[in-house]
Design goal:
Blueprint lengths: L2 H11 L2 H12 L5 E2 H8 L3 H13 L3 E6 L2 E6 L1 H12 L18
Helix pairs in contact: 2-4
């Protein structure tokens, strides 16, 4: 990943509805969810959902698959892995990090 695609991915996730959609799709991986189910679970009107799905798809964070008259959406877990790797690439001076501190010390 490069800086430009990283910024696009982070910008796509920097909105409450899109982050909720993405998290729902991650929880539903690898099966994905039809658009109607996403709309119902998150109480989003169709046009609003469509807009947010298009932004997430443009950032390559989700993919879509047509299933008859329905479209199902899936989290692009490979892209998420690339994003995570990019963000942690130079973690701890490039020497790898030790275990995370206990929960109360974060």
């Amino acid at each position: 990943m490069n800086i430009s695609s990283t910024v696009n991915s982070l910008a796509a996730l920097a909105q409450e509805s899109r982050l909720s959609i993405f998290r729902l799709l991650v929880r539903s991986a690898p099966n994905g969810l039809p658009a109607g189910t996403i709309a119902k679970k998150l109480k989003l009107p169709g046009p609003t959902l469509s807009f947010h799905l298009n932004v997430l798809a443009a950032a390559e964070l989700i993919t879509a698959s047509k299933n008859g008259r329905s479209i199902s959406y899936f989290a692009n877990l490979e892209r998420v892995g690339q994003l995570t790797e990019f963000l942690l690439e130079n973690c701890c001076g490039g020497h790898g990090c030790g275990p995370a501190p206990p929960k109360g010390q974060r």
